[in-house]
């Protein structure tokens, strides 16, 4: 049994397809299949149910994969630790952002990161909160940047900055005449929201939880940009995080954005990583840069 064979098994578990697993592992399908058969022979159990057009793990196979993920993560950490001892701010760092933050934050922070950390190669990903935490715990990414207030048990977290919510409405809306909007002003309004799985949806519902708003039942946006266009078309109002209303996103035809009056509802943005991570120095440096950019623009 070796790490290579365990990696083959985990990849097959992720793809549920011999061909795709072989392609991802850069080997031929017969090679991958043969190595997995050798692994089964060595362990004396069947790990994979091989059926036409269907690949499934046996019960013991599922347990072996779960343990193999930890073994592979430990081996990757050993490599990262050895490389990091030579230069902790060099090498690859895998960072994931939630979709309601990444497109608006990255253009601001990437130039600073390139300047401060020229030897650090960032691999960037975008996931909704639930999948992001799953990938983080599985060792697929090193750092997640998201809105705190979710279950991060067993992980390290660092608050980076508070981001205010704003109200976006059609240009002809009565509230567009106001300099700022109170939560009570939204009573009886039609509220457009993101689809399930986006933490921003839950945060918007929490902001509006004490007032009678009407959520459109036949529409769920997949992105903030879809929400922006639907509001501009006059289908309702929505809540946007402040970063999504600045720079090139500030000027949208027939769309008006107003701040909330105090107390301003907000979300707390933060970094989250595994307690066992060996990339602490690089993670701290990236978090410092993000916090600096967010604080400066607050």
Write the layout of secondary structure elements.
Elements (H helix, E strand, L loop, with lengths): L2 H13 L2 H7 L4 H15 L4 E4 L2 E4 L1 H28 L4 E7 L4 H15 L3 E7 L2 H10 L4 E5 L7 E16 L19 E2 L7 H9 L6 E2 L8 H9 L5 E4 L13 E5 L6 E9 L5 H18 L1
Parallel strand pairs: 3-4, 3-5, 7-8
Antiparallel strand pairs: 1-2, 5-11, 6-9, 6-10, 6-11
Helix pairs in contact: 1-2, 1-3, 1-4, 2-3, 5-9
Features:
298 residues; alpha/beta; Arc Repressor Mutant, subunit A; D-Maltodextrin-Binding Protein, domain 2; 3 domains; seven-stranded mixed β-sheet; two-stranded antiparallel sheet; 9 helices; 11 strands
CATH classification, class level of the largest domain: Alpha Beta
List the secondary-structure elements in sequence, H or E. Answer: HHHEEHEHEHEEEHEHEEEH
Number of strands: 11
Radius of gyration: 23 Å
Largest sheet: 7 strands, mixed
CATH homologous superfamily (4th level) name of the largest domain? Periplasmic binding protein-like II
Number of helices: 9
What is the share of helical residues? 40-55%
Separation, N- and C-terminal Cα atoms: 53 Å
Percentage of residues in DSSP E strands? 15-25%
What number of structural domains do the residues give?
A: 3
Mean pLDDT: 88
- The backbone outline, from C-alpha atoms, is globular
Oligomer: single chain
Pairing-aware structural class of the strands and helices? alpha/beta
CATH topology of the largest domain: D-Maltodextrin-Binding Protein, domain 2
* Uncertain residue ranges: none
Give a nutshell description of this structure.
With 298 residues, the protein is α/β, with parallel strands linked by helices.
